[in-house]
Amino acid sequence: MKESHIQKFNTVYQSSDCYYGQELRPEFTDYFANQNLAGMQALDLGCGEGRYTLYLAEKRCHVTAIDRTPAGIFKLRSTAQKLQLPVAASVLDIADFTFNKNQFDIIVAATVLDHLADGLRQRTIDSIQSALKPGGILYVNVFTVSDPGYIVKQQAASEVSVSGVSDTAFCMEYYYKPDELKLHFQDLTHLYYYEGIEEDLSHGQPHHHGWACLLAQKP
Ligand SMILES: C[S@@+](CC[C@H](N)C(=O)[O-])C[C@H]1O[C@@H](n2cnc3c(N)ncnc32)[C@H](O)[C@@H]1O
Protein backbone atom coordinates (compact mmCIF):
# COMPACT_ATOMS: atom_id res chain seq x y z
CA MET A 1 0.00 0.00 0.00
CA LYS A 2 1.37 3.44 -0.90
CA GLU A 3 2.72 5.56 1.97
CA SER A 4 0.53 8.54 0.93
CA HIS A 5 -2.58 6.34 1.17
CA ILE A 6 -1.60 5.04 4.63
CA GLN A 7 -1.12 8.63 5.77
CA LYS A 8 -4.50 9.67 4.38
CA PHE A 9 -6.33 6.81 6.13
CA ASN A 10 -4.40 7.47 9.35
CA THR A 11 -5.51 11.10 9.24
CA VAL A 12 -9.17 10.35 8.55
CA TYR A 13 -9.36 7.60 11.19
CA GLN A 14 -7.90 10.00 13.74
CA SER A 15 -10.40 12.71 12.76
CA SER A 16 -13.52 11.07 14.20
CA ASP A 17 -14.77 8.18 16.36
CA CYS A 18 -15.86 6.15 13.39
CA TYR A 19 -14.96 7.75 10.07
CA TYR A 20 -17.10 5.61 7.74
CA GLY A 21 -19.88 5.37 10.35
CA GLN A 22 -21.00 2.22 12.12
CA GLU A 23 -23.63 1.30 9.60
CA LEU A 24 -23.03 -1.86 7.54
CA ARG A 25 -24.41 -2.71 4.14
CA PRO A 26 -27.98 -4.04 4.55
CA GLU A 27 -27.34 -7.21 2.54
CA PHE A 28 -24.63 -8.13 5.07
CA THR A 29 -26.73 -7.62 8.20
CA ASP A 30 -29.84 -9.15 6.56
CA TYR A 31 -27.88 -12.32 5.87
CA PHE A 32 -26.12 -12.68 9.23
CA ALA A 33 -28.76 -11.22 11.59
CA ASN A 34 -30.34 -14.53 12.58
CA GLN A 35 -27.29 -16.74 12.27
CA ASN A 36 -25.40 -18.36 15.10
CA LEU A 37 -21.76 -17.54 14.39
CA ALA A 38 -20.34 -18.58 17.78
CA GLY A 39 -16.91 -20.19 17.42
CA MET A 40 -16.67 -19.61 13.67
CA GLN A 41 -13.50 -18.19 12.10
CA ALA A 42 -13.72 -14.99 10.06
CA LEU A 43 -11.22 -12.82 8.19
CA ASP A 44 -11.79 -9.09 7.61
CA LEU A 45 -9.38 -7.80 4.94
CA GLY A 46 -8.71 -4.05 5.02
CA CYS A 47 -10.90 -3.83 8.11
CA GLY A 48 -10.29 -0.08 8.68
CA GLU A 49 -11.73 0.79 12.08
CA GLY A 50 -13.40 -2.61 12.13
CA ARG A 51 -17.13 -2.05 11.75
CA TYR A 52 -17.62 -5.45 10.03
CA THR A 53 -15.23 -7.16 12.46
CA LEU A 54 -17.09 -5.82 15.51
CA TYR A 55 -20.47 -6.96 14.16
CA LEU A 56 -19.20 -10.53 13.67
CA ALA A 57 -17.25 -10.59 16.95
CA GLU A 58 -20.33 -9.44 18.87
CA LYS A 59 -21.88 -12.68 17.61
CA ARG A 60 -18.89 -14.50 19.18
CA CYS A 61 -17.28 -15.22 15.83
CA HIS A 62 -13.44 -15.20 16.08
CA VAL A 63 -12.22 -12.52 13.71
CA THR A 64 -8.75 -12.05 12.23
CA ALA A 65 -8.72 -8.42 11.12
CA ILE A 66 -5.91 -6.87 9.09
CA ASP A 67 -5.29 -3.40 7.76
CA ARG A 68 -2.10 -1.53 6.78
CA THR A 69 -3.23 1.69 8.48
CA PRO A 70 -2.19 1.73 12.17
CA ALA A 71 -4.84 4.22 13.40
CA GLY A 72 -7.73 1.95 12.36
CA ILE A 73 -6.19 -1.15 13.95
CA PHE A 74 -5.33 0.65 17.23
CA LYS A 75 -8.92 1.85 17.51
CA LEU A 76 -10.32 -1.61 16.74
CA ARG A 77 -8.00 -3.29 19.26
CA SER A 78 -9.01 -0.91 22.00
CA THR A 79 -12.77 -1.33 21.31
CA ALA A 80 -12.46 -5.12 21.14
CA GLN A 81 -10.48 -5.18 24.39
CA LYS A 82 -13.02 -2.96 26.16
CA LEU A 83 -15.92 -5.16 25.03
CA GLN A 84 -13.91 -8.40 25.47
CA LEU A 85 -14.56 -9.50 21.91
CA PRO A 86 -12.67 -12.31 20.12
CA VAL A 87 -10.68 -10.16 17.68
CA ALA A 88 -7.05 -10.58 16.55
CA ALA A 89 -6.24 -7.29 14.79
CA SER A 90 -2.91 -6.69 13.03
CA VAL A 91 -1.27 -3.83 11.17
CA LEU A 92 -0.40 -5.76 8.03
CA ASP A 93 -0.41 -5.33 4.29
CA ILE A 94 -2.64 -7.83 2.50
CA ALA A 95 0.40 -8.58 0.32
CA ASP A 96 2.11 -10.03 3.43
CA PHE A 97 -0.82 -12.02 4.83
CA THR A 98 -0.54 -15.83 4.65
CA PHE A 99 -3.80 -17.31 3.38
CA ASN A 100 -4.18 -20.98 4.31
CA LYS A 101 -6.43 -23.30 2.35
CA ASN A 102 -9.95 -23.92 3.77
CA GLN A 103 -9.27 -21.78 6.86
CA PHE A 104 -12.21 -19.39 7.24
CA ASP A 105 -15.99 -19.74 7.59
CA ILE A 106 -16.48 -16.09 6.62
CA ILE A 107 -14.33 -13.64 4.65
CA VAL A 108 -15.16 -9.94 4.40
CA ALA A 109 -13.48 -7.59 1.91
CA ALA A 110 -15.42 -4.33 2.14
CA THR A 111 -14.15 -1.62 -0.24
CA VAL A 112 -10.62 -2.95 -0.25
CA LEU A 113 -10.08 -4.99 -3.44
CA ASP A 114 -10.49 -1.72 -5.35
CA HIS A 115 -7.62 -0.26 -3.28
CA LEU A 116 -5.17 -2.97 -4.42
CA ALA A 117 -2.81 -2.66 -7.39
CA ASP A 118 -3.49 -5.03 -10.33
CA GLY A 119 -1.26 -8.03 -9.49
CA LEU A 120 -2.06 -8.05 -5.78
CA ARG A 121 -5.77 -7.65 -6.50
CA GLN A 122 -5.88 -10.80 -8.64
CA ARG A 123 -3.73 -12.78 -6.15
CA THR A 124 -6.04 -11.72 -3.33
CA ILE A 125 -9.16 -12.79 -5.27
CA ASP A 126 -7.59 -16.25 -5.78
CA SER A 127 -6.39 -16.48 -2.16
CA ILE A 128 -9.81 -15.54 -0.76
CA GLN A 129 -11.46 -18.40 -2.66
CA SER A 130 -8.83 -20.87 -1.54
CA ALA A 131 -8.95 -19.71 2.12
CA LEU A 132 -12.72 -20.12 2.41
CA LYS A 133 -13.87 -23.44 3.86
CA PRO A 134 -16.36 -25.40 1.72
CA GLY A 135 -19.72 -23.86 2.68
CA GLY A 136 -17.96 -20.66 3.79
CA ILE A 137 -19.40 -17.24 3.04
CA LEU A 138 -17.72 -14.35 1.24
CA TYR A 139 -18.95 -10.78 1.49
CA VAL A 140 -17.21 -8.38 -0.87
CA ASN A 141 -18.03 -4.92 -2.12
CA VAL A 142 -16.15 -2.55 -4.42
CA PHE A 143 -16.67 0.75 -6.21
CA THR A 144 -17.52 0.70 -9.90
CA VAL A 145 -16.99 2.85 -12.98
CA SER A 146 -20.34 4.49 -12.07
CA ASP A 147 -18.55 6.11 -9.11
CA PRO A 148 -17.90 9.85 -9.54
CA GLY A 149 -14.34 9.15 -8.31
CA TYR A 150 -13.76 7.15 -11.50
CA ILE A 151 -14.65 10.11 -13.67
CA VAL A 152 -12.28 12.33 -11.68
CA LYS A 153 -9.52 9.72 -12.06
CA GLN A 154 -10.13 9.65 -15.81
CA GLN A 155 -9.65 13.41 -15.88
CA ALA A 156 -6.30 12.87 -14.13
CA ALA A 157 -7.32 15.05 -11.18
CA SER A 158 -4.99 14.48 -8.25
CA GLU A 159 -5.34 14.88 -4.51
CA VAL A 160 -7.72 17.82 -4.67
CA SER A 161 -11.06 17.95 -2.94
CA VAL A 162 -13.72 17.71 -5.61
CA SER A 163 -17.34 18.27 -4.76
CA GLY A 164 -19.44 15.08 -4.94
CA VAL A 165 -16.43 12.76 -4.66
CA SER A 166 -15.28 10.88 -1.55
CA ASP A 167 -12.28 12.52 0.14
CA THR A 168 -10.44 9.16 0.11
CA ALA A 169 -11.11 8.65 -3.63
CA PHE A 170 -7.47 9.34 -4.54
CA CYS A 171 -6.54 6.15 -2.64
CA MET A 172 -8.48 4.04 -5.17
CA GLU A 173 -6.41 1.86 -7.51
CA TYR A 174 -9.22 0.47 -9.62
CA TYR A 175 -12.94 0.83 -10.40
CA TYR A 176 -14.85 -2.31 -11.39
CA LYS A 177 -16.69 -2.63 -14.69
CA PRO A 178 -20.31 -3.85 -14.84
CA ASP A 179 -20.54 -7.54 -13.80
CA GLU A 180 -16.75 -7.78 -13.30
CA LEU A 181 -16.91 -8.56 -9.58
CA LYS A 182 -19.46 -11.30 -10.24
CA LEU A 183 -17.22 -12.86 -12.89
CA HIS A 184 -14.15 -12.93 -10.63
CA PHE A 185 -16.05 -15.08 -8.14
CA GLN A 186 -17.99 -17.20 -10.63
CA ASP A 187 -16.83 -20.47 -8.99
CA LEU A 188 -18.80 -19.57 -5.85
CA THR A 189 -22.59 -19.82 -5.48
CA HIS A 190 -23.99 -16.31 -5.58
CA LEU A 191 -26.55 -15.61 -2.85
CA TYR A 192 -26.89 -11.89 -3.55
CA TYR A 193 -25.52 -9.47 -6.13
CA TYR A 194 -26.16 -5.76 -6.53
CA GLU A 195 -24.82 -2.92 -8.63
CA GLY A 196 -26.07 0.64 -8.22
CA ILE A 197 -25.33 4.24 -7.25
CA GLU A 198 -26.06 5.53 -3.75
CA GLU A 199 -25.59 8.71 -1.76
CA ASP A 200 -23.02 8.62 1.07
CA LEU A 201 -23.46 11.06 3.95
CA SER A 202 -21.22 9.18 6.41
CA HIS A 203 -18.04 11.25 5.92
CA GLY A 204 -16.70 14.41 4.29
CA GLN A 205 -18.92 16.31 1.88
CA PRO A 206 -22.10 14.56 0.67
CA HIS A 207 -21.08 12.36 -2.26
CA HIS A 208 -22.16 9.31 -4.24
CA HIS A 209 -20.69 5.87 -4.79
CA GLY A 210 -21.13 3.36 -7.56
CA TRP A 211 -21.32 0.00 -5.75
CA ALA A 212 -20.99 -3.65 -6.65
CA CYS A 213 -21.78 -5.96 -3.71
CA LEU A 214 -21.59 -9.74 -3.63
CA LEU A 215 -22.54 -12.32 -1.02
CA ALA A 216 -21.47 -15.79 -2.10
CA GLN A 217 -20.88 -19.30 -0.75
CA LYS A 218 -18.09 -21.72 -1.55
CA PRO A 219 -19.61 -25.02 -2.78
C1 LIG B 1 -12.38 2.36 2.23
S1 LIG B 1 -11.53 1.71 3.61
C2 LIG B 1 -12.66 0.43 4.11
C3 LIG B 1 -12.50 0.04 5.56
C4 LIG B 1 -13.45 -1.04 6.06
N1 LIG B 1 -13.38 -2.25 5.25
C5 LIG B 1 -14.86 -0.52 6.12
O1 LIG B 1 -15.69 -0.89 5.27
O2 LIG B 1 -15.14 0.27 7.03
C6 LIG B 1 -10.20 0.79 2.84
C7 LIG B 1 -9.22 0.21 3.85
O3 LIG B 1 -8.35 -0.71 3.18
C8 LIG B 1 -7.06 -0.57 3.74
N2 LIG B 1 -6.09 -1.07 2.76
C9 LIG B 1 -5.91 -0.63 1.49
N3 LIG B 1 -4.92 -1.32 0.89
C10 LIG B 1 -4.47 -2.23 1.80
C11 LIG B 1 -3.46 -3.23 1.77
N4 LIG B 1 -2.71 -3.43 0.69
N5 LIG B 1 -3.27 -3.97 2.88
C12 LIG B 1 -4.02 -3.76 3.99
N6 LIG B 1 -4.98 -2.83 4.08
C13 LIG B 1 -5.21 -2.07 2.99
C14 LIG B 1 -6.94 0.90 4.06
O4 LIG B 1 -5.95 1.14 5.03
C15 LIG B 1 -8.35 1.24 4.54
O5 LIG B 1 -8.46 1.11 5.92
Number of helices: 7
CATH superfamily: Vaccinia Virus protein VP39
Query: What structural class do you assign from the helix and strand content?
Result: alpha/beta
> Which spans have pLDDT < 50 for at least 5 consecutive residues?
none
Indicate the CATH architecture: 3-Layer(aba) Sandwich
Give a written overview of the molecule.
With 219 residues, the protein is α/β, with parallel strands linked by helices. The protein has a single domain (3-14, 29-217), classed as Rossmann fold. The protein is 31% helix and 26% strand. It has helices at residues 3-14, 26-32, 51-58, 70-83, 118-131, 148-154, 180-184; strands at residues 41-45, 62-67, 87-91, 104-110, 132-143, 189-200, 207-217. It has a 7-stranded mixed β-sheet. α4 links the parallel β2 (62-67) and β3. The relative contact order is 0.15. The mean pLDDT is 93. The structure holds S-adenosylmethionine (SAM). Residues 1, 9, 20, 46-48, 51, 67-69, 72, 93-95, 110-112, 115-116 line the site of S-adenosylmethionine.
List the helices and strands and how they pair.
Elements: H1 3-14, H2 26-32, E1 41-45, H3 51-58, E2 62-67, H4 70-83, E3 87-91, E4 104-110, H5 118-131, E5 132-143, H6 148-154, H7 180-184, E6 189-200, E7 207-217
Bound molecules: S-adenosylmethionine (SAM).
